[in-house]
Design brief:
Elements: H1 16-41, H2 55-64, E1 75-77, H3 83-89, H4 93-101, H5 134-149, E2 155-160, H6 167-176, E3 185-191, E4 194-195, E5 198-199, H7 211-214, E6 219-224, H8 228-245, E7 249-254, H9 276-286, H10 292-314, H11 337-348
This protein binds thiamine diphosphate (TPP).
Thiamine diphosphate (TPP) binds next to strand 2 and strand 4.
């Protein structure tokens, strides 16, 4: 395709194929979240939490991550709004439906955790937790291992704005930035301006959370997380810095929360928030890269696929009681019959 100074497509530094790939993944992620919400509302799950409104940022993060297992690759300490990142890495959306339905074939937790709590050891995706922010105090550990092993892997840790009030966030600032012992950590705050129902304004003295990094000698940046092209440029710069300098970086990305906090607040669409997907589609259409019809067809295709998958998942079985010990770190039964027997014979001696 030839471009001229008047061609709107020339406005992007990214290749059209890449822009369309990002768009495809954003649509796939949005449709997945909407399917999960529908499943929840139909009684096919107990709770929904996810990231509709964060697709622009999260998809690009996944595309830029060096995927693999072990310290030579990037570690991802994510949170419960990260489906876009995982789909961009290549995760199967049906696995998210399996976790929502709590069936045995859920690869993340064997049907025992609720939606949005993924873990993919093969890709260094550490378990996503319900307690918010703990990922920030765990992240320096993988970064330290990476620094010691000397490879190109970096540690990426992400969470919301309200959680930065927790001590774990300060732990990450301190441990990542010790002079002469800095760690390759990309700290990300996806700021949707709310902690459940608490607005940002009432909880922060600082204007930008990212500014806290400056006191620790960190590079920082505040970005519009709703614009995937902008995100691509900013994340590429930040990751490159962390990878080559082996020093921390704190990025704050402004994002939207399109369906409220979770099913606990109704999970209904909030038209008052900026929608990164409709914004991006308008841009791509204005540049002649995709038509409105093609956007609708793509959405319809994924909607149909996931509708069919949700019907299949409904027929699958819940986990067997004895699998309760799977997917936990301890490999010893400390409370069952075997443990009681051992304790008794200890006492008999
Ligand atoms: C340690 C801990 N405290 C409180 C909660 C309850 N809680 C769940 S989500 C949440 C708000 C998180 O807000 P934010 O960090 O901004 O992330 P968001 O969900 O908005 O992406 C709270 C307080 C929790 N899960 N864990």
């Amino acid at each position: 395709m030839t471009t001229t100074a008047h061609d709107p497509a020339a406005a992007s530094a990214l290749a059209p194929e890449l822009l369309l790939r990002i768009h495809d993944l954003m649509v796939k992620t949005r449709v997945l979240e909407e399917r999960l919400i529908t499943m929840y509302k139909q009684g096919d799950g107990y709770f929904w939490i996810g990231g509709p409104g964060e697709e622009a940022f999260n998809v690009v993060l996944g595309l830029l991550t060096h995927k693999g297992r072990g310290p030579a690759y990037d570690y991802l300490h994510l949170h419960y709004r990260s489906a876009g990142t995982l789909l961009a890495l290549g995760a199967n959306p049906v696995d998210f439906l399996r976790q929502m339905k709590n069936i045995a074939s859920d690869p993340f937790s064997g049907g025992r955790n609720f939606a949005g709590h993924s873990v993919i050891p093969e890709w260094n995706v550490v378990p996503i937790t319900s307690p918010i922010e703990v990922q920030y105090s765990i992240a320096p550990g993988t970064a330290l291992a990476q620094k010691r092993s000397g490879g190109k892997g970096i540690t990426i840790v992400q969470g919301g704005d309200a959680g930065t009030a927790e001590g774990d966030f300060a732990t990450c600032l301190v441990w990542s930035s010790r002079r002469g012992q800095e760690l390759p950590v990309l700290m990300i705050v996806t700021n949707n301006h709310f902690g459940i129902s608490t607005p940002f304004e009432g909880q922060h003295g600082e204007t930008y959370i990212a500014d806290r990094g400056k006191a620790f000698g960190m590079r920082t940046e505040v970005i519009d997380g709703n614009d995937p092209e902008n995100v691509y440029a900013a994340l590429s710069r930040a990751m490159d810095y962390v990878r080559t300098e082996k020093k921390p970086f704190l990025m704050e990305a402004m994002v939207s929360r399109l369906y409220g906090h979770s099913s606990a607040s109704g999970a209904n669409y909030n038209a008052g928030e900026a929608d990164c997907l409709t914004r991006f589609e308008a841009k791509l259409q204005a540049r002649g890269l995709i038509t409105a019809e093609a956007c609708e067809q793509l959405r319809a295709k994924y909607t149909q696929e996931l509708l069919e998958a949700s019907k299949r998942v409904r027929e699958e079985l819940p986990p067997e009681p004895e699998t309760i010990w799977n997917h936990i770190f301890a490999d010893t039964d400390h409370v069952g019959d075997a443990a009681r027997g051992a304790a008794k014979s200890e006492g008999d001696r």
